[in-house]
């Protein structure tokens, strides 16, 4: 689990990307547009966005402005054990194919969420010596997720505008995500979507900033990391993520991540996940 407060005076437009973790973004300033999957959302103070590990996204800056936001990131394995049969804490992070990622909070809702964030940051701080601090932090994260699910429980009536070019190609991304553990070739994609493989390849890179092969590898690595965090062996994690060769998996993982799969698994198991920088100065909404 990780909570950070960002202040960016020079906010550059970011390319499309996705994270290994689930993410909650609470925006504390005005911006321009936030692209998530094939949707376009306005960036404004009090907006909240939730992203799962397959949500491609990028942000577009507002010229000459300071961009401030809170980011809460966590692995789904950290909270799956807290969910019950009656209540899935990750409900609002699942099935984002037709989903409104943004919710606009009022002052009271912002205040409530910031108070929860403040408490979590207290227990995550490296100098915190409170007894049972990791349990308190995890319990508070669960409380945040209950509240987030409450906020997203009522469908929003407003339609979210789509980015037309991305909308035309997002079915390709959805297809890849659904068949990520299977053999996926450019020829196969071109045949399924009745388009030239050369045109598909070039348009995909133009729109997302990455090649189809790069996207497939990154998605498989994200899945493999999840298996490694759950305790699967290196070989089984690679196989289940769609890599057809253990050597290829280890080489690709090491080259991309910077450490071997075994080192990643060992690092995750021994890592104190509940470390966060000293809480920054609070926004005016906070006491």
UniProtKB/TrEMBL annotation:
<keyword id="KW-0804">Transcription</keyword>
<dbReference type="InterPro" id="IPR003313">
    <property type="entry name" value="AraC-bd"/>
</dbReference>
<dbReference type="Pfam" id="PF12833">
    <property type="entry name" value="HTH_18"/>
</dbReference>
<dbReference type="InterPro" id="IPR037923">
    <property type="entry name" value="HTH-like"/>
</dbReference>
<dbReference type="InterPro" id="IPR009057">
    <property type="entry name" value="Homeodomain-like_sf"/>
</dbReference>
<dbReference type="GO" id="GO:0003700">
    <property type="term" value="F:DNA-binding transcription factor activity"/>
</dbReference>
<protein>
    <submittedName>
        <fullName>AraC family transcriptional regulator</fullName>
    </submittedName>
</protein>
<feature type="domain" description="HTH araC/xylS-type">
    <location>
        <begin position="170"/>
        <end position="267"/>
    </location>
</feature>
<keyword id="KW-0238">DNA-binding</keyword>
<keyword id="KW-0805">Transcription regulation</keyword>
<dbReference type="Pfam" id="PF02311">
    <property type="entry name" value="AraC_binding"/>
</dbReference>
<dbReference type="InterPro" id="IPR018060">
    <property type="entry name" value="HTH_AraC"/>
</dbReference>
<dbReference type="GO" id="GO:0043565">
    <property type="term" value="F:sequence-specific DNA binding"/>
</dbReference>
């Amino acid at each position: 689990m990780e909570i950070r407060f960002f202040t960016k005076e020079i906010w550059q437009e970011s390319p499309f990307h996705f994270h290994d973790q689930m993410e909650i973004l609470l925006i504390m300033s005005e911006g321009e547009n936030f692209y998530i999957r094939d949707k376009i959302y306005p960036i404004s103070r009090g907006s909240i966005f939730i992203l799962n590990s397959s949500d491609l996204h990028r942000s577009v800056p507002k010229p000459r402005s300071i961009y401030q936001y809170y980011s809460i990131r966590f692995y789904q394995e950290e909270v799956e054990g807290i969910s019950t049969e009656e209540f899935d804490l990750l409900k609002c992070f699942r099935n984002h194919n037709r989903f409104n990622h943004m919710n606009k909070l009022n002052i009271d809702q912002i205040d409530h969420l910031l108070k929860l964030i403040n408490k979590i940051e207290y227990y995550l701080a490296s100098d915190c010596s409170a007894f049972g601090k990791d349990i308190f932090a995890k319990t508070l994260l669960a409380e945040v997720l209950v509240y987030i699910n409450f906020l997203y429980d009522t469908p929003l009536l407003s339609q979210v505008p789509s980015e037309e070019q991305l909308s035309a190609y997002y079915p390709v991304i959805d297809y890849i995500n659904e068949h990520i553990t299977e053999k996926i070739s450019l020829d196969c994609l071109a045949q399924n979507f009745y388009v030239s493989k050369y045109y598909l390849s070039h348009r995909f890179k133009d729109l997302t900033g990455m090649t189809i092969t790069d996207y497939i590898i990154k998605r498989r690595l994200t899945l493999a990391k999840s298996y490694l965090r759950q305790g699967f062996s290196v070989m089984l994690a690679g196989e289940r993520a769609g890599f057809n060769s253990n050597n290829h998996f280890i080489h690709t993982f090491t080259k991309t991540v910077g450490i071997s799969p075994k080192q990643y698994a060992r690092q995750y198991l021994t890592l104190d996940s509940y470390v966060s920088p000293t809480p920054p100065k609070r926004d005016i909404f906070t006491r």
